[in-house]
Amino acid sequence: MPVDVLAEVVANTHLSDDYSVLALAAPEIASKAAPGQFVMIKPSAGIEPLLRRPFSVFEILRDPSGTPTGLSILNKRVGVGTALLYSARPGDRLACLGPLGKPFTPVDAPTEAWMVAGGVGLAPFATLAESLVQRGTSATLFYGARRGADLFCTDVFDRLGIRLALATEDGSRGDAGFVTGSLERALAARAGGAAVHLYACGPTPMMRVVAELAVRHQCPCDVSLEQVMGCGMGGCYSCVVRARNGSGEWHFVRSCLAGPVFDSRDVAWEELGASH
Questions:
Q1: What phi and psi, each to the nearest 5 degrees, are found at residue 119?
Q2: Pairing mode of beta strands 221-224, 196-201
Q3: Which of 10, 52, 146, 212 lies at a CB distance of 3.0 to 4.6 Å from 23, suitable for a disulfide?
Q4: In angstroms, what is the C-alpha Rg of the chain?
């Protein structure tokens, strides 16, 4: 069951004029969180903004003995709520509800795990990467952004020994072009057709392309949808998406409960956005 706590801000590291990593003391949530789950955070104690905001759990914070002490989130300033979080200071207390949602299922060797992230879609992959390393699963992060300056926190994955395949639309770092182009070339070049499980999170058009590549190259693929959520617990129906159930029938589900992680084959992509 999720818990609702007043989490103290431990640190707020500004990565750029818009991005920051907010560290929160929330051991009750951190000890229960699984890769791909999220929290709902109230950016301030006031009325504005009225609703909480959903954030993937980025990192699990631990003390020297390895005991979970809190969690971090990757925040991008785009509106009132995220601006308040960007300006949060150590000692501030924020209402934090979690962990919520359906998590990723890490795969075991010899299958390789290839994570595909675009922008803030990087957020759910630090905890997944940590879990994969603990299981001895070979993992690669395909990470794309518009420019090199927008590729954040790669050191987190370097420390874990995750292979990095970077791409930027302006060619300033890594491959030039969309990260899906890098992924497609890597899938085509797999030595001996090695077994690969794909995980994707980011803009909907990017995830749709990853889903299409997964079908073409016969790879399982899990995606973490970034739907707007008002409550995170299924009460407001703001995050409804069309998906396939266990019987193969299409119906509408609340992504905060049925997801945010879905088998890519079970998502009605044509209703979420066009491919690029």
A1: 60, -130
A2: parallel
A3: 10
A4: 18
What's the pLDDT band for 194 if we cut at 50, 70, 90? confident
Neighbours of 48 (CB within 10 A): 9
Cα 173 to Cα 151: distance, rounded to the nearest angstrom:
9
CA contacts within 13 A on the Cβ side of 89: 0
> Among positive and negative, which fits the CA dihedral 145, 151, 153, 155?
positive
Question: Given a cut of 90, is residue 120 above it in pLDDT?
Answer: yes
Domain of 94, CATH number, reads 2.40.30.10
- Domain extent at residue 137: 112-225+260-271
- Rounded distance, CA 218 to CA 56, Å? 28
- Considering the domain architecture, whether residues 92 and 125 belong to the same structural domain is answered as no
pLDDT tens, residue by residue, 235-266: 888 899 999 877 778 999 999 999 999 999 99
Phi first, then psi, for residue 120 (nearest 5°) are: -70, 0
DSSP label at 153? -
| Res. 191 pLDDT band, cuts 50 70 90 | low
pTM of the model: 0.94
Q: Is 166 a member of any domain?
A: yes
- pLDDT value at position 253? 93
| Nearest-angstrom CA–CA distance, 49 and 38 | 19
Q: Are residues 118 and 195 in the same domain?
A: yes
